Amino acid sequence: MAYSESYECDVCGDQKREEGDWWLAWVDCFEGARPEDNQPLIKLTRWQAQQAHTPGVKHLCGARCAGTLLDRWMTEQHADPDAHCETK
User: Fold this and answer.
1) Which of 1, 4, 5, 67 is most buried, most CB within 10 Å of its CB?
2) How does pLDDT run along the chain (88 residues), one tens digit per residue?
3) Which 3 state secondary structure label does DSSP give 76?
């Protein structure tokens, strides 16, 4: 029996196919000089199947959806300028 994975864009919901220019994005932490200076940052990289399984990663079908995700994230950051990295 063959195993197949399916992914959909976290912005528009399109299904991933073999062709296409897919990307991965996730939120990380920019470490300041002191822990209270740490700030969230967003990272973006081209598609890698192994990284697509990472918890918290966003699947993006192209530049337009990557831009939309970035715009939404920036709006959230602007609304809370004192936001710091989440601690776990």
Assistant:
1) 67
2) 555 678 999 999 999 988 889 999 999 999 889 888 888 999 999 999 999 999 999 999 999 999 999 999 999 988 887 777 864 4
3) helix
Domain ranges of the chain: 23-79
Q: Count other C-beta atoms under 10 Å from residue 9's C-beta.
A: 22
Structure-block tokens of residue 22: 């897919």
What six digits make up the tokens of 69?
């995700």
- Judged by DSSP in three states, 41 sits in strand
Q: Are the beta carbons of 42 and 27 closer than 8 angstroms?
A: yes
Instruction: Identify residue 8 by its one-letter amino acid code.
Output: E
Six token digits for residue 87: 């601690």
Quote the pTM value.
Answer: 0.83
